[in-house]
Design brief:
- There is one protein chain.
- This protein is about 50% helix and about 20% strand.
- By secondary structure, it is α+β, with helices and mostly antiparallel strands.
- The protein has two domains: about 80 residues; about 150 residues, 2-Layer Sandwich (Heat Shock Protein 90), CATH 3.30.565.
- The strands form two sheets. Strands 2-4-5-7-6 form a five-stranded mixed sheet, covered by helices on one side.
- Helix 2 packs parallel to helix 6 and helix 4 packs antiparallel against helix 6.
- The longest helix is centred in the N-terminal third of the chain and has 44 residues.
- The chain is globular.
- The two termini are about 15 Å apart.
């Protein structure tokens, strides 16, 4: 409304976004080299190039590998968020279907859930419409929601993924019967580095990037993401994606 008055603010915001990206890029670069070296040493130990390992030592090495892999995933997440903050990772909306997204994401989630004895149920409507979609990034969003549902669920829990088309929208729902989120923290879960609660108290790892990524991706599709949750009863995330591109957005 007031372009001349708002110009300094926009310029400052662009500078702050660039600073964030530069900082996170530097962190990413500095962490890649030691991570690569650690992976190399782990592989040498696993291949017994440095001598045979006892069962106890091998178990400890496997635990170390898992933690280093987690750290590597966090670094990847940092760069993905940084790219979105600077709008350097634009979505590329082309007519596509959701089936490839579910086909790629759900089997991986089922594998992850199996170790916690969590069951994943699907209810995907047939013949979902062709609509403006970035398949790769929607896979990232759905993966983040499923990872969240697995992480904050209990052994023996359940997760359900459903999708249907209604009028001019496609609705994807990811629900779980996990631990839920405290009411006062619901608005915080979309913010970078939040997990909806104190990660130490909840015994969870990670920087809480997943839901931030999902939020950015859905908004970039001109859609919305909603949550219904109750502490101790689980959470329901609903993605509403328009089937017709609105050029005015």
């Amino acid at each position: 409304m007031y372009p001349e008055r708002d110009a300094p603010y926009k310029s400052t915001q662009v500078s702050l976004d660039q600073l964030r990206h530069t900082f996170l890029s530097s962190v990413n670069h500095e962490m890649r080299t030691p991570l690569a070296l650690i992976f190399q040493i782990i592989e040498m130990l696993e291949d017994t190039h440095l001598g045979a390992l006892t069962e106890e030592q091998l178990a400890a090495l496997m635990a170390l590998r898992r933690q280093v892999e987690n750290l590597s995933h966090m670094v990847d997440g940092l760069m993905f968020v940084a790219a979105f903050l600077c709008k350097r990772e634009p979505v590329r909306l082309v007519p596509a279907r959701l089936e490839p997204v579910f086909n790629d994401v759900i089997p991986v989630a089922e594998f992850k859930a199996r170790s916690k004895e969590i069951a994943i149920e699907t209810d995907i409507a047939p013949n979902l419409p062709l609509f403006p979609l970035d398949v790769k990034q929607m896979e990232e969003a759905l993966t983040a929601l499923l990872d969240n549902a697995i992480k904050f669920n209990q052994p023996g829990g359940k997760i359900k993924v459903s999708a249907q088309a209604t009028d001019d929208w496609v609705n994807i729902i990811v629900s779980d019967n996990g631990i839920g989120i405290e009411p006062e923290r619901i608005e915080m879960i979309w913010k970078i580095f939040e997990q909806g609660a104190d990660p130490l108290r909840r015994g969870q790892e990670g920087l809480g990037l997943g839901l931030t990524l999902a939020h950015y991706i859905v908004e970039a599709h001109h859609g919305t993401i909603e949550i219904e949750t109750a502490l101790g009863q689980g959470s329901v995330f609903t993605l509403n994606l328009p089937t017709h591109q609105n050029n005015s957005q």
